[in-house]
Amino acid sequence: MATTTSKRRIAISGNGAVAQAMRQINPHVVAAYPITPQTDVVEDFSQFVADGLVTTEFVPVESEHSAISTCIGAAAAGARVMTATSSQGLALMHEVLYIAAGMRLPIVMPVVNRTLSAPINIHGDHSDSMGSRDAGWVQIYCKNAQEAYDTAVMAVRVAEHDDVRLPVMVCYDGFITSHALTSIEPLADEQVQAFVGKHKAHYPLLDTQHPVTYGPLALFDYYFELKRQQAEGMFQAPRVIQDVAEEYARLSGRYYGLVEEYRLEGAEMVVVVLSSAASTMEVVVDETRAQGVPVGLLRVRAYRPFPRAEILRGLSGARAVAVLDRADAPGAGNGPVGGDVRSALFEAERRPLFMNGIYGLGGRDTGPDLLRQVVERLQGALATGKVAEPLFYLGVRGD
Amino acid sequence: MAPINLKELAKEQEGLSSGHRMCAGCAAPIVVRQIMHAAGGPVVAINATSCLEVTTSVYPTTAWNVPWLHNAFENASATAGGVETALRALWKAGEITEDVKIVVFGGDGGTFDIGLQSLSGALERGHNFVYVCYDNEAYMNTGIQRSSATPRGASTTTSPVGRAQLGKRQTRKNMTEVVAAHRIPYVAQASPSHWRDLITKAQKAFQVDGPAFLNVISPCVPGWRYESQDTIKLAKLAVETGYWPLYEVEDGKYRFTYKPRERKPVAEFLAAQGRFQHLLKPGREDELAAMQADVDAQWEELLRRVGE
């Protein structure tokens, strides 16, 4: 197997980095269907198989529905399993996502975030994975290629942890993160292998000496208890995510919490956002701070389980909060993250002024100029003591 | 292959035990038990959502004596492909040393209709499993709705008989031929009435390297509307009338495994079932003739393929 040495920086796209993580994890089975912008992950991994760099059995399925179904079969059989998808592909998997979680199968799936049709559009927003936020999967949203790589490695440990046993989505932004070439520092193959460890199957189907039944009919007398047990996995997940992150930090020097706080000290105004937009927001925070405007940034990394306590703590000093959603939730009166953060703030000792912006749908570029407008909205709210527009569509024409 | 001996079969452990909740007279568990006897070693069963699935796995009980997995309705083949791939991967990694056979059970809904894509994909990729369709010719699990396996003229709850329409208006899909077109190593049509033929076919199916497909007619008491003791009689009539020819396609070569000396009129098969009673009334001779013509055409086509 080719070896990468530690502390070596390489230029690579987000998809390339995640494919490298998959190569280093070397799962027993990968079943995947290509879809823009995830395609390079499948292509790169196919090449690793062709070049004998992995021992993985790769299944080039005929659809995403079959990709996740094959993963379920393989994971139940006792294998370590991965796939990857985007957009319509994730939507096509929808029904089966719940089954993977309900069967407590630790499948790891990079989701390269892309919007949903119609109109058809291949670019990045979070409409796809927000649609499956309640499917019972752990969802972690990554800011850049380095984090996507690191999270893919950590996700194996989180998913397979005895206290969790749930599938995990590693989400990162289509094109912005998946295709842009950046510099990352990968671990050595041996380090990744040692970190993920040997896969320990629970009740493998292929143990014919101990026959088990997967996916039975459970009616009103048992279904509820089984679902409560499943919820327990998600309740335990925050601790496990952080434990795994601490162990990973000792190995890599990089720590990832449930949320990432950026210049929250003394911040009267806080912007909450997921994924790559946080990088742009950091630039805007720096420059507005330089002008003496007390703005901070709270990035939600683990979205399921939702880090309510960490969000409350991060926003405890804020007088005005703007949550930015790269997905709409038509008719809800807020975006998905906006609704969750507002719900968390119900328990705040002092509730801040609150606004929710929908931004960047269909991959619409959201640069510093647009994000400065968010700061201006927050300043306006603080000045007047009220929020002029609780739900706004950032930079859209004809609004 | 060892000769099939009923006495010996009766001594073997059943893959599917009694105590399940299928209807009295249902052909599906008969089919399943016959096929499980043919595995000849450790076997894992994958089940599409179906009557068989819901009635054999009511939590916290199970009627399965073998490892069993149900995922959803339309993805049994992809799921089985995953199990089979894991078997190869774990074998390669030295984490498993046992040769395990994989069998999939789906109804006609999960096979002909909603599961067709998943099945076709898995067959093309060459996963080594035996797919068994127990074809009861309608969506029986939800209460007798038409499927693409439902024959012309049959009354179902979504192809009912009314003043303007006499049951289903379309001819059934020939799924055995659809599968045969995938050029997999072994395809066969079988009937529980001809159990030796069915078990022999299942043995062949388990032994080939690659996918195998068995399409097994499976009379349904409430769906076909007959007395529960007549299941095997119905299955036999389907064969004797040429409605359900017993044949196999081994590496592309067609062969009858049983041919009635003289085909009985299809009306005999239809008359024994409530779902066709409306076709037997005076003035509906054209309908009956059309159904006989369908069976005749299918038979002629099969003769041509066999080379007779």
What is the structure about, briefly put?
The complex is a heterodimer of chains A (399) and B (308). Chain A has 399 residues and is of the alpha/beta class. Chain A has two domains: 10-252, Rossmann fold, CATH 3.40.50.970; 259-393, Rossmann fold (3-Layer(aba) Sandwich).
Give descriptors for this structure.
A: 399 residues, Rossmann fold, 2 domains, 6-stranded mixed beta sheet, 16 strands, 40% helix, disordered N terminus, B: 308 residues, alpha/beta, 8-stranded mixed beta sheet
Beta content of chain B comes to 5-15%
Task: Tell me the distance between the termini of chain A.
Answer: 55 Å
Low-confidence stretches of chain A: 1-5
> Approximately how much helix is present in the residues of chain A?
40-55%
Oligomer: heterodimer
Q: Fill in the CATH topology of chain B.
A: Rossmann fold
Poorly predicted ranges of chain B: none
Q: Spell out the helices and strands of chain B N to C.
A: HHEHEHEHHEHEHEHHEEHH
CATH architecture of chain B: 3-Layer(aba) Sandwich
Number of strands of chain A: 16
**Helix/sheet category of chain B:** alpha/beta
Write up this protein.
The complex is a heterodimer of chains A (399) and B (308). Chain A has 399 residues and is an alpha/beta fold. Helices cover 40% and strands 17% of the residues of chain A. Chain A has twelve helices and 16 strands. A six-stranded mixed beta sheet of chain A has the order 10-12-11-14-15-16, sandwiched between helices. In chain A, strands 5-7-6-13 form a four-stranded mixed beta sheet. Chain A has a three-stranded parallel beta sheet with strand order 3-2-4, with helices on both faces. In chain A, strand 15, helix 12 and strand 16 form a beta-alpha-beta unit. Chain B has 308 residues and is α/β, with parallel strands linked by helices. Chain B has a single domain, classed as Thiamin diphosphate (ThDP)-binding fold, Pyr/PP domains (Rossmann fold, 3-Layer(aba) Sandwich). Chain B contains twelve helices and eight strands. Chain B has an eight-stranded mixed beta sheet with strand order 2-1-3-4-6-5-7-8, with helices on both faces. In chain B, helix 2 packs across helix 8 and helix 4 packs parallel to helix 6. The radius of gyration of chain B is 19 Å and the shape is globular. The interface between A and B is large, with 44 and 50 residues.
